[in-house]
Design brief:
Blueprint: H1 9-12, E1 22-26, H2 43-54, E2 59-61, H3 90-95, H4 118-137, H5 151-159, H6 164-176, H7 187-190, H8 194-203, H9 205-231, E3 235-240, H10 249-253, E4 268-272, E5 282-287, H11 291-296, H12 300-312, E6 315-318, E7 326-331, E8 341-344, H13 348-358, E9 363-365, H14 373-382, E10 386-389, E11 410-413, H15 422-429, H16 432-442, H17 450-460, E12 465-469, H18 470-473, H19 503-515
Parallel strand pairs: 1-2, 1-12, 2-3, 3-6, 6-9, 10-11, 11-12
Antiparallel strand pairs: 4-5, 4-7, 7-8
Amino acid sequence: MAPAPCGALCQKRRTIMELKRCSGILMPISSLPGGYGIGSLGAPARRFVDFLARAGQSVWQILPVGPTGYADSPYQSCSVFAGNPYFIDLDLLARDGLLRRKDYAFLQWGGDPSRVDYGTLYERRFAVLRKAYANFLKRRPLPGYETPYSDDWYRFQFLSADWLPDYCLYMAIKEDNGMIDWQQWPRELRRRDPAALARFRADHAREIEFWAFVQYEFYRQWEALHNYAASKGVSIMGDIPIYVAPDSADAWAGPELFETDEDGRPRRVAGCPPDYFAVDGQLWGNPIYDWDYHKKTGYAWWVRRLRHALSVYDILRIDHFRGFDTYWAIPAGETTARNGRWEQGPGMDLFRALRLSLGDMPIVAEDLGEMFPSVRRLLAESGFPGMKVLQFAFNGQDSVDLPHNYPRNCVAYPGTHDNNTLAGWYYHELGGAGRKQAKEYFALTEEEGVLRGLLRGVLASPAALAVIPMTDWLEAPAEARMNTPGSPRGNWQWRADDKALTPALAKEIRTMTARYFRTEPALKRQKKQTL
């Protein structure tokens, strides 16, 4: 029986609090087993969808699917609209006649199948994709004869017209300039001189089209995967960061969207103020939005951005939601975040404009970290569900992150991609007093297992949706942690072992989630009766 609760989000865009109780698994596409060096949108993803369906899970939560940027982070992408070329499934390209298996299957994609080697991917993946593009071009009947490409190609170009040309031009110029930051390009290209851009387009037409081809293949494969997930009753929860990367097509093509000088360079950048965990604060470096400009346009860019995201995902998590209320702005050129200041964000004015254009939106607000009362009021007025994280709960107090305090309109997690694995946290980060409180609170036993007991607590909570990272179902150690904030190396690398995603594990997950009415129990096979 296919899980029913959350599938309607795609069509009706209902809020989570209107849905029956349901559950899901957080599993980045990059972490999927199989593929060639990294998870992909083909058979590895479909196998995981099948696993989710067997396990009675209604939601597959993923991380941002854009091209990875600084420190391999999916949250520092060169485009808020483009898809990650690494996720394109090479076997599907071969099935479509664009590659031969020998073009990719016997290449070395990294020395450790449990880790993504981004350096190797960067060196080898694009050469393979260029072979696929060369074969794509050969499908034209006559060299030089302007025979139209397929209707799908033109449809993709038309539907992507508000971002694809700038992205492809940006990537072609970047490639031509040794992949350096756009702020270091020649002045006429950096400042988008129309004559200079026209010359570049004429001289590099094939390179520009290559980047369009890459996006075309990504979104073809994504659409097929999305449809397959829907057919299995699985909704996909995507993720978008609030800010754009400084070295991105978005910042280069739209300087008016941000606080920039006449050369397009940021006047102020984003970050977080000093706190207990970071005495100098966090200097992210993302350009700050010019909210006055956005308001004058009716938030047109944000409407485009969310319309695109909601066409890709069924549910949308927005990172750093508190930045829509108040945000920390740091003068450009500072080496720490100490000299920033709080500024007022657009608040409900933005979300009223979005609702006017897009209707009700299935958004989950990442509301973790320091919360002003004004942020809580914004979350309440928006109606969006926030997040509750078990790892924040055990401080000896009646914490809002203890499951009995969860509201229905929230998403409950044991931890997120920014936390340690549940095993790493419980055994290496949580102190003795915290472990004692957790054992007493959940009545943890050795027979059940400490980690399974913690997951039981999340699943039993009042939250309408509970999402468990795949690492926590696998009880993976700290080495499987996806990201350590503030640490620029060793992140975003964990990959699952295909042998670990067993039918027995799917059955156990279904049994646990059905116990707390988040899915239907597995159907028991009827014994044949003899006459």
